[in-house]
Write a structure and sequence with these properties.
Elements lengths: L3 E8 L20 E4 L7 E6 L5 E9 L7 E4 H7 L6 E8 L1
Parallel strand pairs: 1-5, 2-4
Antiparallel strand pairs: 1-6, 2-5, 3-4, 3-6
């Protein structure tokens, strides 16, 4: 995963309160993300390549598609500034 780059999107309102792949309830305002294969509980730094904004999220769900590298919670996407476009090219780094 070291330096993985690709498209990230976000998810939120329709899934808020539902169970994630690790069994906890999804909180669309938390700093969490879905990834195709990283272990649950993994903390990763997500950096938006266009703006340089970054933050740390915890993997708590599975991403059903490999077309994207990450699905961010709505809260994380908001702080990263990707809500208007719906997606962004990001780099993932281990913490």
């Amino acid at each position: 995963m070291n330096g993985q780059t690709g498209v990230a999107s976000y998810y939120g309102p329709g899934l808020h309160g539902r169970r994630t792949a690790n069994g906890e309830r999804f909180d669309m305002y938390a700093m969490t993300a879905a990834h195709p294969c990283l272990p649950m509980g993994t903390k990763i730094r997500v950096t938006v390549l266009e703006t340089g904004r970054s933050l740390i999220v915890t993997v708590n769900d599975r991403l059903p598609s490999r077309r994207r590298v990450l699905d961010l919670s709505m809260g994380a996407a908001h702080l990263l500034g990707i809500i208007p476009a719906g997606k962004a090219t990001v780099q993932l780094s281990p913490v």
